[in-house]
Amino acid sequence: MAQRVDVVVVGLGVGGEEVAGKLAEAGLSVVGIESNLVGGECPYWGCVPSKMMIRAANALAEARRIPQLGGTATVHPDWTPVAKRIREEATDDWDDTVAVDRFVGKGGRFVRGYGVLTGARTVTVGDEEYEATRALVIATGTEPSAPPIEGLAGTPYWTNREAIEVEDLPVSLIVLGGGAIGIELAQVFARFGVRVTVVEAADRLVPIEEPEASALVQAALEADGVTVRTGVKAARVLHSEADGFAVELADGAGQVTGDRLLVATGRKARVADLGLEAAGLDAEARWLATDERMRAADGIWAVGDVTGNGAFTHMAMYEAGVAIRDILGQEGPPADYRAVPRVTFTDPELGSVGLTEAEARDRGLNVRVGQTDLTTSARGWIHKEGNAGLIKLIADGDLLVGATSVGPMGGEVLSMLTLAVHARVPLSQLRSMVYAYPTFHRAVEDALRNLA
């Protein structure tokens, strides 16, 4: 007989843990199921440890800029404290006891194992079956998606997890994929002395971003010694213990070699063998589709990366909040994806929100574009070394529908642009506000003047 509870949450990553914990605190009987670590990718192999690596790498870069700004410095990279800090943050070599205790302390029941849907609202874990009388929530996240390249399967290639866990840096590294994860890690390793080559099939890095932003990021990586190959595909992978990796490029574009190979070509929803068909859901779909209340079907909600609305911790938390309110019958705004911010934490940081110029034109909007070079701003001139950046605004009539902020604090400057897009702040209001001087965000005022 199935054990009947109010709520079953399958997957306790960032979004799932938030839903399960808040519903348990609200007095519902909640079973949370997780086969891996409670907390998911972000605290153990994603945003938190990777930003620790980036913080360390950026400190090295800043130290190297001292001779141009005010003194002398000798920099000796050492990966040891970085690896140690990551292991300490991941609670003693990737142990989730603290996270499990946190959930149980809120009144939830934790079950370790792989949950499989066996009915509309029933989930089996091993020999146990649970029936959700009020809500079944799917929050299983994503996993790395390796491309079908000849020779890749079976080799000891890295995903982001192996890259985060590394204790001894390789001499050289090939990165397949020039998206956010690939280029963040490429820059980190390069700044610690690793010889890095990035291979991207698209014609530019971070192809979902504005072309001007891609160009700035590529220039920054190349200044750090990274070799960037865009517009080329990997055709074949060779590996041996003695020689490491060799990637043969398509169309006679040559070969790149490295001690290690990091595959960062994308992620896919973790729904394999989840039994979605038993609940009437499409087991072949790339993502779990939901409505504006995060409902995937009657009595079933989905939140986080598995929905395909953006593989970001802030997105998982946002969607969790929408689902929690709906499950509890509370009033609140539906999911709104017009102003989803994202930041690629390279140096310079690349932040964007809303539509790119190309996306806005594809939608037939009355597009106006305003742009300014951050180096021409007072703060950019003062900052001097490492001051590359830009502000690009996309307007439709009197409203911003998208923006890009690249620079030393690109992600922080993005906050005001996200608010402007989300709250539909008229351009006249943005032009009439006071911008503090000398700040990086003051460049937004210059971009507004350049709207045409």
- With helices defined by DSSP (H or I, 4 residues minimum), what is the helix count? 16
CATH superfamily caption of the largest domain: FAD/NAD(P)-binding domain
CATH topology name of the largest domain, in short, is: FAD/NAD(P)-binding domain
Number of strands: 22
* Alpha carbon gap, first and last residue: 67 Å
Q: Any idea of the CATH class of the largest domain? A: Alpha Beta
How does the helix and strand content classify structurally? alpha/beta
- The low-pLDDT segments are none
Radius of gyration (CA) equals 23 Å
Tell me what portion of residues adopts beta-strand conformation.
25-35%
**How many distinct folded domains?**
3
The CATH architecture category of the largest domain equals: 3-Layer(bba) Sandwich
Biggest sheet, in brief? 8 strands, mixed
The shape is globular
Mean pLDDT: 96
How much helix, percentage-wise, in residues? 25-40%
How would you characterize the overall build of this protein?
With 452 residues, this protein is an alpha/beta fold. It folds into 3 domains: 3-39 and 96-144 and 268-327, FAD/NAD(P)-binding domain; 160-265, FAD/NAD(P)-binding domain (3-Layer(bba) Sandwich); 341-449, Enolase-like, domain 1 (2-Layer Sandwich). 32% of the residues lie in helices and 25% in strands. The strands form 5 sheets. Strands 1, 2, 3, 4, 5, 6, 16 and 17 form an 8-stranded mixed sheet that branches. Strands 18-19-22-21-20 form a 5-stranded antiparallel sheet, with helices on both faces. Strands 10-9-8-14 form a 4-stranded parallel sheet, with helices on one face. Helix 3 (47-64) runs antiparallel to helix 5 and helix 3 packs across helix 9. The longest helix has 18 residues, at 47-64. The chain is globular, with a radius of gyration of 23 Å. The relative contact order is 0.12.
